[in-house]
């Protein structure tokens, strides 16, 4: 992380006092209370922030940002703190700007098929607010009960149904963004296209480095007539992976395709007894939604394809209760795996689907090499892997080993033509692996965008990019082929 | 004016780098089909990227294609059709010149999107990676070859609809989509604009998965090759999918929402959607606006804008608005549409009109300042397409 600014640390009492004036009942500065904010869902790293500020309005957010900009205090935005990549990891010399109290649904506009909400509204609350009218908000990250829509925008969160419905970025219409100077801009609105440069697209997934989301307009979708899930058991995970490719190749776009390996299936059987096939080495859930006739005929094709790919069992839901039962174990998989080992690292690489069999068997070999168990539970339709590496942080060297194993998996994903992260974000977790995927010119170009929004690097510094680059007047420093101009001059 | 026609990416990068050093400006072009789109530019040179063409990798099983920016849109579509796939955002050539063909680079840079955008998204939603030359002549890449990817800033979103003002794309990776059989269209006659738009919104909010939601007044129908007897208007709803489900969907939809609807003949339906995609009603138009509004504001927008001819698409989200002569000033159109929560773009107009009027909707000062800084982050010397979107950017 960037070296804490000693001057800011020294000025802490004055900064806290000023913040209390800006947000009278929303500043946490007591050391014991700050402990509750010392990490997000990447719990291996902990750091208490300088102070926590919990604004109730966009105006308060603006005031806090303007103050921090003037006083050169770093800012880490935080929604519900569910990031798995350390996106909201605090800084010793930075305030943690928590948006959780801005949790009002401002407007539900079904005529325009959208909802306008504050950033602290949870993902699931949006669907809950419109489900009686047969609408829903499509992105469904597994943390949807807790995670906030502002955080979803910052991380471009995905979920189980991305294959058909896209990520957060494909389901947004408008965003109000507070810039580091405190001014707020409105990008898009209720129209389908925003006009001008697609700054919403740029801001979505920028991991809090470009601005703070103060309002979101999401696209709502009509609930499909029906959703049905099927469950197929396979003698090997490779065959399950091949089946996924065949289904896509046949021209079907299922709403979701999820694979679990034997290890994960055993874990959930102990945890919640979903009754998954006992003799299979891997299982595949394929969910289809849409018009009932289409879904029925697609399911028949899925069965044919599964059998042709070696499926040893196949069942299909014929009621909502049966569908829920098929999903029960999948949805409990992370929690169940958490029961098996004291600690767990959840990786998040995406690979081309055809590489699934090869990459999965390679991961199994690596697990032997590192002597750490790994459970595979993942969004197979997107090629988005979530290997869960089990370890024990109390055991000497285990954390380092698990992290090295994780990095090897991500290297493998990139080599296979994939990417470091499909939905969890880069954060601090994968920051130092960015050069695996991007050349220095690629990263330099991205960092110049950071400079366009936040030239003093006050917003969430230390995340996403391996080095902090300095911005220069009139654009940014030009880094050519990784060579800095005047390499001997010190840069901050 | 100098015309550069590099044979490959490295040559193109060298030309840009040289231009940046010498303070020159370049208009980025493929085959020139969109020369009339955006504000007129006066540049010292033209960077023609048509020679950077061809499919690099097409993996139908992965639903992904990587190709060079100068590849003709027609060739892309033909290659995809061979594997029974298509580009889901339904791009059309949007050509102003029958002789000039659209390239994939220009199509994405202009943010072209057809009728299906209402459900399946636009160019921005289907471009998942690219390579480009920035304004200093450095080649960089962004995104990847997989759909689910949050590694680094999502620059593909920014590339789509940037009209070449930020960088020159050399390679694009796009999602492909399974192609469906013949579309089935349900037609309701003689609805007023407000009634037609209301029905389209209901359809878009229903579970019947319509992929085309248009309302066509008599003036637009007269300019189409499809016969439509004496109807005052047609409200048309398209379904795409397997033949088996078409009947069920059309019947279900009609029962629930539009008892007066009739199913159009396949030939008629195919021709209608193809002509609409090509904007046939507006081929001889001098002044055409592309207006994006919240769907529920469509009828109100048309009432205020009072166009000579129009088409409602995207269930009201998109209006093509024509004025025979300059009946409305650009300021009036922009102000009216902004007031309704949308934005307008002068899609076709004389050079003079596009030079003097705001082609793209004016933005507030803070957004413009940010737009300028983003431009500088890619193109600090202002080499690419100066002023194409906004004066001075």
Summary tags:
heterodimer; A: 492 residues; alpha+beta; Uridine Diphospho-n-acetylenolpyruvylglucosamine Reductase, domain 2; Uridine Diphospho-n-acetylenolpyruvylglucosamine Reductase, domain 3; Alpha-Beta Plaits; 18% strand; globular; B: Uridine Diphospho-n-acetylenolpyruvylglucosamine Reductase, domain 3; 2 domains; five-stranded antiparallel β-sheet; four-stranded antiparallel β-sheet; 18 strands
- Domain count of chain A, please report it: 4
- CATH domain topology of the largest domain in chain A: Uridine Diphospho-n-acetylenolpyruvylglucosamine Reductase, domain 3
In DSSP terms, counting alpha (H) and pi (I) runs of 4 or more, how many helices of chain A? 17
* Average predicted local confidence, pLDDT of chain A: 93
Task: Indicate the CATH class of the largest domain in chain B.
Answer: Alpha Beta
End-to-end span of chain B in angstroms? Answer: 21 Å
CATH class of the largest domain in chain A: Alpha Beta
Label the overall shape of chain B. Answer: globular
CATH architecture of the largest domain in chain A: 2-Layer Sandwich
- What is the structural class of chain B? alpha+beta
- What global shape of chain A is seen? globular
What is the number of strand segments of chain A? 18
- The Rg value of chain B, from CA coordinates, equals 21 Å
Q: What is the number of domains of chain B?
A: 2
């Amino acid at each position: 992380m960037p070296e804490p600014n000693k001057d800011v640390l020294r000025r802490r009492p004055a900064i806290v006092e000023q913040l209390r004036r800006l947000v009278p009942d929303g500043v946490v500065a007591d050391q014991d209370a700050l402990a509750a904010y010392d990490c997000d869902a990447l719990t291996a790293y902990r750091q208490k922030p300088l102070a926590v500020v919990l604004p109730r309005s966009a105006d308060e957010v603006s005031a806090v940002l303007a103050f921090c900009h003037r006083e050169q205090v770093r800012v880490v935005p935080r929604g519900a703190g569910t990031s798995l990549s350390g996106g909201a990891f605090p800084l010793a010399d930075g305030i943690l700007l928590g948006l959780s109290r801005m949790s009002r649904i401002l407007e539900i506009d079904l005529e325009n098929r959208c909802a306008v909400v504050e950033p602290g509204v949870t993902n699931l609350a949006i669907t809950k607010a419109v489900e009686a009218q047969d609408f829903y908000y499509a992105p469904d990250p597994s943390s949807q009960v807790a995670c906030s829509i502002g955080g979803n925008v910052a991380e471009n969160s995905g979920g189980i149904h991305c294959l058909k419905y896209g990520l957060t970025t494909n389901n947004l219409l408008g965003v109000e963004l507070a810039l580091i100077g405190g001014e707020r801009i409105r990008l898009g609105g209720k129209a389908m296209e925003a006009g001008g440069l697609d700054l919403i697209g740029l801001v979505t997934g920028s991991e809090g480095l470009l601005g703070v989301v103060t309002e979101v307009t999401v696209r709502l979708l009509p609930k499909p007539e029906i959703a049905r899930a099927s469950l197929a058991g396979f003698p090997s995970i490779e065959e399950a992976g091949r089946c996924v490719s065949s289904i896509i190749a046949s021209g079907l776009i299922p709403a979701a395709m999820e694979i679990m390996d034997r290890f994960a299936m055993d874990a959930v059987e102990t945890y919640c007894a979903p009754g998954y096939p006992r003799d299979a080495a891997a299982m595949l859930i394929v969910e289809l939604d849409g018009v009932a006739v289409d879904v029925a005929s697609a399911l028949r094709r899925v069965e044919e394809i599964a059998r042709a790919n070696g499926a040893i069992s196949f069942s299909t839901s014929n009621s909502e209760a049966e569908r829920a039962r098929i999903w029960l174990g999948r949805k409990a998989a992370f929690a169940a795996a958490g029961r098996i080992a004291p600690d767990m690292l959840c990786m998040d690489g995406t690979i081309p689907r055809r590489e699934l069999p090869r990459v999965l068997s390679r991961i199994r070999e690596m697990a032997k090499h590192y002597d750490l168990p790994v459970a595979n539970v993942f969004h197979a339709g997107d090629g988005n892997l979530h290997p869960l590496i089990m370890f024990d942080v109390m055991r000497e060297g285990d954390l380092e080993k698990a992290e090295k194993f994780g990095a090897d998996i991500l290297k493998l994903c990139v080599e296979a033509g994939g990417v470091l992260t499909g939905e969890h974000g880069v954060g601090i977790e994968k920051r130092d692996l960015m050069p695996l995927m991007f050349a220095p010119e690629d990263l330099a170009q991205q960092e110049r965008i950071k400079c366009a929004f936040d030239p003093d690097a006050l917003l969430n510094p230390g995340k996403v990019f391996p080095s902090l680059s300095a911005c220069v007047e009139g654009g940014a420093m030009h880094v050519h082929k990784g060579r800095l101009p005047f390499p001997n001059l010190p840069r901050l | 004016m100098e015309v550069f026609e590099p044979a490959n990416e490295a040559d193109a990068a060298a030309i840009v780098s040289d231009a940046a050093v010498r303070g020159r400006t370049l208009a980025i072009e493929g085959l020139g089909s969109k020369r009339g789109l955006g504000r007129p530019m006066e540049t010292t040179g033209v960077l023609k990227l048509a020679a950077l063409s061809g499919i690099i990798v097409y993996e139908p099983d992965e639903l992904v294609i990587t190709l060079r920016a100068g590849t003709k849109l027609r060739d892309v579509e033909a290659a995809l059709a061979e594997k029974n796939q298509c580009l889901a955002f339904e791009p059309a050539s949007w050509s102003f010149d029958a002789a000039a063909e659209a390239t994939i680079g220009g199509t994405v840079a202009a943010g072209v999107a057809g009728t299906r955008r209402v459900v399946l998204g636009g160019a921005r939603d289907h471009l998942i990676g690219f390579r480009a030359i920035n304004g200093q002549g450095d080649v960089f890449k962004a995104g990847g070859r997989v759909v689910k990817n949050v590694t680094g800033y999502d620059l593909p979103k920014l590339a789509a609809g940037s009209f070449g003002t930020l960088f020159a794309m050399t390679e694009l990776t796009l999602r492909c989509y399974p192609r469906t059989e013949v579309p089935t269209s349900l037609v309701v006659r003689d609805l007023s604009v407000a009634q037609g738009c209301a029905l389209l919104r209901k359809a878009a909010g229903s579970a019947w998965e319509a992929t085309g939601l248009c309302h066509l007044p008599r003036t637009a129908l007269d300019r189409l090759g499809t016969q439509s007897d004496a109807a005052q208007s047609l409200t048309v709803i398209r379904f795409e999918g397997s033949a088996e489900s078409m009947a069920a969907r059309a019947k279900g939809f009609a029962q629930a929402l539009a008892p007066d609807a009739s199913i159009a003949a396949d030939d008629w339906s195919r021709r209608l959607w193809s002509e609409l995609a090509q904007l046939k009603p507006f081929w001889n138009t001098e002044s055409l606006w592309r207006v994006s509004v919240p769907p529920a504001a469509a009828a109100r927008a048309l009432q205020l804008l009072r166009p000579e001819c129009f088409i409602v698409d995207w269930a009201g989200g998109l209006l093509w608005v024509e004025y025979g002569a300059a009946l409305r000033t650009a300021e009036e159109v922009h102000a009216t549409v902004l007031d309704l929560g949308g934005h307008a773009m002068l899609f076709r107009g004389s050079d003079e009109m596009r030079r003097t009027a705001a082609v793209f909707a004016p933005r507030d000062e803070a957004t413009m300042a940010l737009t300028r800084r983003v431009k500088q982050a890619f193109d600090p010397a202002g080499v690419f397409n100066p002023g194409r979107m906004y004066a001075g950017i």
